[in-house]
Amino acid sequence: MHEQTEQDNERTPGTRNRRLNILGQDEIDELYGLPRFSDEEREHYFALTPSEEVALKELHSTPSKIAFILQLGYFKARHLFFVFIADEVAADLHDVAVRYFPDTAEPDCTISKRTRLKHQRMILALCNYKLCDDRDRQNLEVKAREAAMVSGKPIYVFRQLLLEIEARRLTLPGYSFLQDTVSRALTFEQNRLSTILKE
Fold it and tell me: Which of 4, 83, 148, 151 could make an S-S bridge to 185, C-beta 3.0–4.6 Å?
């Protein structure tokens, strides 16, 4: 499950029923769903750089180390953090255990919330990313308005936001936030053009 912030889940009055349908469900899953890796993708995403190997040594228990490698691989693929249990990621768990902890009889990735948050801080530092905070969200609002001046198509504005998020090396905000940001930008631009025409 994608771990969203409270801000991602906040909804202004009336937004539930009038959100833009920008992406299909398959496209949403591609952006936000827990990755389903092939064997080749596991080889790539669960490989550790020297700096990541150093960070791994800071962790104590084997479940913590396994969970860290899994979360790191998923972050590299999605730029999101996930909450998962062993059954949901059984194939990935097995791959990581065989590769890095072959002597572990019953590999597990169960950790506390405190440990999970510690992993997240470590991963952000290792990948040179940051959480999308209030200031970043305000900047995205501005970017969306700029994009809406170029095209009135929701998908265009949405893609420009994704490019901005990637360029700024931010964790991906919740889909509902992006939907609302695109909607507000298009409405703002429509009102701006209407005012110009009236004048």
Answer: 148
181 contact partners, CB below 8 Å, separation of at least 6: 137, 140, 141, 144, 161
pLDDT tens per residue across span 91-142: 999 999 999 999 988 999 999 999 999 999 999 999 999 999 999 999 999 9
% of the chain residues with pLDDT over 70: 91
pTM for the predicted model, two decimal places: 0.86
